[in-house]
Amino acid sequence: MTVHEAGIGKYYEDFVIGDVYQHPFGRTVNETDNTWFTLLTLNTNQNHFNADFAARAPYGKIIVNSGLTVALVVGLSVIDMSQNAMFNLGWTDIKLPHPVFIGDTLYAESIVLDKRESKSRPYAGILTCKTRGLNQDGDEVVSWTRSAMVYKRGAKNDKGYFPKAKSGEMTLPAPASGDKADA
């Protein structure tokens, strides 16, 4: 029996400059997402939560909070770019070229721009990537450049966190009496 340790994502060694990752999930933004995020962040711009007010604005409807757009797109990218990161080091050049509306589905893709080994942490490296979010029609809705410190494959910090079951290891159940192996 083989036990596959818990873990997903890529390590520093897995990244190649110029590689593009089309992240696997899409996420449809609903009204509750936008309203709760707007209230949670104390954003009082009525274009994000007052349909009557937003109807008079240039787009004529509620615009999704740009902070939520950024948060969703970075979340979509984590599985490939920073699942095994220790922390973010910086974000630059955030752009929002196209509005996001309730009902839009967001997708994300990233390109590896640079990587270098950490001088202070031999078990990690610094990854720099550009990420962009696209809506269901292919319109670019957000982009940025981000740097993160990512564990190397041999780092011990992100291993061994799965708890040991007090009831013992998982095993196959014993065959019931009378079962035929070649049925």
Percent range of helical residues: 10-25%
Number of domains: 1
Indicate the overall shape: extended
Number of helices: 3
Uncertain stretches of 5 or more adjacent residues: none
Distance between the termini: 23 Å
The level-1 CATH class = Alpha Beta
| CATH T-level fold name | Thiol Ester Dehydrase, Chain A
Spatial extent as radius of gyration:
22 Å
Q: What's the story with the biggest beta sheet?
A: 6 strands, antiparallel
For the record, the CATH architecture stands as Roll
* Total beta strand runs: 6
Mean pLDDT comes to 91
Order of helices and strands: EEHHHEEEE
Helix vs. strand class: alpha+beta
Q: How much beta, percentage-wise?
A: 25-35%
Say which CATH homologous superfamily is assigned.
Hotdog Thioesterase
Organism: Actinocorallia herbida
Pfam families: MC_hydratase
GO molecular function, one term: lyase activity
Protein name: Acyl dehydratase
Q: Can you tell me about this structure?
A:
The structure is a single chain. By secondary structure, this protein is an alpha+beta fold. The protein has one domain: Thiol Ester Dehydrase, Chain A. The protein is 17% helix and 28% strand. It contains 3 helices and 6 strands, in the order ββαααββββ. Strands 1, 2, 3, 4, 5 and 6 form a 6-stranded antiparallel β-sheet that branches. Strand 5 (124-134) and strand 6 form a beta hairpin. The longest helix is centred in the middle third of the chain and has 16 residues, at 66-81. It is extended.
